[in-house]
Amino acid sequence: LADLLVEDINAGCGALRSTLPALLNECDLLIKVGDEYRIQTPESVAYNELLRNQRNELANQTFKIDAERSFRIRGRFAELGKKLSLTHGASKESRTISTYFDSALPNDSGKKIYAWIRDGWNTDESTVVADARQAGNQSPTVFVFIPKRQADDLRNNIIDFRASKATLELKEAPSTNEGRDARMHIETIRQTAEQRINQILDGVFSQARVFQAGGSEASGDSLVEMILEAANSSLARLFPKFPEADNANWGKVYEKASKGAADALSAIGFHGEVPENPVCKAILGFIGGGKKGIDIREHFTAPPFGWPKDAVDGGLQILLVAGHIRAKDDRGNQIKPTDLERRDIGKTAFLVETKIVSAEQKLLVKKLLQKAECPFKAGEEIAAVPAFLEKLAKLAAGAGGEAPMPAKPSKLVIDELKSLMGNELLVMIATKHDELDKMIDTWTALKKSIEVRWPGWATLKDLISHIDALRDAEAYRVQAEAIEAQRSLLDEPDPVAPLVSSVTNVLREELVRLAHDYENRHKLGMERLQEDRNWNKLEPEQRSELLSKHNLAESDKPGVKVEDTAAVLETLRSLPISAFRDRVDALLERFDRVLAEAAALLEPEVTSVSLPKHVLKNSADLESWLNQVREQLEKALGKGPVRIK
């Protein structure tokens, strides 16, 4: 078009080209669709008429234009807000920057970092600067001013944007090509206005100014950098006491302290007394007469502290372990330091220990720990006390027991100490030092004496179980029962050892006697075998087999060892006296069975006859017995050879 319309060819069409777009856009015969111009149609005329009406209506509704502009500016800050993140100190504590657009700061502006954003359409720059100066050097607020630039251009494009958007929403989607071209023309207007609005705001935001409270201006290549620079300076104003707890290892302090380690503060490089640590000292001072965990956390995570939660929880836990505070659950029951779960800290009540442990009392506690051989580190005596109390309980358990041991000593003192905690516990241990010291000596001595005497008692009980059939058995049993009833195991002189010796001697004598009887009867039985005609006719293998069958071989003789108590008991376990007696009594009868079986081997038809046993008082009894025997033998002889048992 410029080439066609040029009048001065030498001058060219440059000037004409720059004026054509505006002329074409205002031409009622044309519409712009994308990058092209098309002839107006009835459909486009209708769209343009509706667009014109919307523009005129908006031009008289300034509040809508202002609302759109404010919406756009806030939207820009919503996008910038994603980049406005702060990490504070070595502990990298996350901090929030809150954007604020109202005409006056909120009541909590001294407790948060606010980026207070105002623009030149509502406030002038001098007011923002004055407010920043008036806020003072202690305020954490960041003051942001968005200047008013290209105001008319911005206003016109906002009108175009909203009018074209409303037109598109009011008109239904067309079905003809002319209608679609007309709708695309309105869409082109909307897109062009949108792009222009963004361009204007980009320019406006690039000229924004940021002021620190007090009046100094922040520098930076972008609005985000300027706000972050000012906000970082605000951190020191908002949290002036943050450096006291700024250490990334407070989490390790909590972990170690929760396991009872009294040196947990070494994780942050602190090796002094727990109450001297700045964090612990502040917490101790705040608890005073008592505070809930949730109140302690809220106090120290808020300004002017802003401490990490790990620091607050770690400080509480190490103070608890070191005995400077105590903890109670919601029922008022005291909680041991190692039993406090982190999830329960918020609802736990903490109280400062009222008992102060003096240097002299600490020394008395140390002496008891050393005497009980409970290892501990200097300054960490409280951590070793649970092991000390367990050691006392074990000593008490070993200092008595079932009869005839002495009765177990009372553990009332131990139970009383276990009910206490912290400094109160240390003070009570020091107060009862002499009593506890004596207990350790007494219970240790009793335990050692029991360990020496108890095996003898066990041996006596074993021996007593074998004396039922012996003379004076009841007397020995009564003596043993008396020792048990009177719990006199540890009496002096030792009542058990002499009784063990006496019972051993009695059992030894009986075993020796039975062994002698066994030997004599076995010898007599073997002599009978040697005199028997049938026995002598047997082969050596047959004789050996018969003796083994009836446990009469040399290898079957009972092994009796009686050289000491242990040997006597070993013999009795394998061959009790009653069984030994039965074996001796049955010995000759076994030889009788051997003789009968020997005869049976040589004369299978031989009948064994046992003669009747009677008490004969006179000649008549004798005559009667002889007749009975004669009759029995004659009857047996009728069947064949007879052997008399």
List the main descriptive attributes of the protein structure presented here.
single chain; 645 residues; alpha/beta; four-stranded antiparallel β-sheet
Spatial arrangement of strands, main beta sheet: 3-4-5-6-7
Instruction: Please summarize the sheet with the most strands.
Output: 5 strands, mixed
What form results from the Cα inertia axes? Answer: elongated
- SSE-based structural type: alpha/beta
What is the CA-CA span between the terminal residues? 157 Å
In round numbers, the mean pLDDT is 89
Q: Beta-strand level of the residues, as a percent range?
A: 5-15%
Query: Rg, please?
Result: 56 Å
Polypeptide structure, described:
The protein contains 25 helices and 13 strands. The protein is an alpha/beta fold and 645 residues long.
Write the layout of secondary structure elements.
Blueprint: H1 2-5, H2 14-25, E1 30-33, E2 36-39, H3 42-59, H4 62-81, E3 85-88, E4 93-100, E5 113-119, H5 125-135, E6 142-146, H6 151-170, H7 177-206, E7 209-212, H8 223-238, H9 250-258, H10 278-287, E8 291-292, H11 293-301, H12 309-321, E9 325-328, E10 334-335, E11 349-352, H13 359-371, H14 381-398, H15 412-418, H16 422-431, H17 433-464, H18 473-485, H19 496-531, H20 533-537, H21 540-549, H22 565-574, H23 577-585, H24 587-602, E12 607-609, H25 619-637, E13 642-644
Parallel strand pairs: 4-5, 5-6, 12-13
Antiparallel strand pairs: 1-2, 3-4, 6-7, 8-11, 9-10, 9-11
Helix pairs in contact: 3-6, 3-7, 6-7, 9-12, 10-12, 13-14, 13-16, 13-17, 14-17, 17-19, 19-23, 19-24
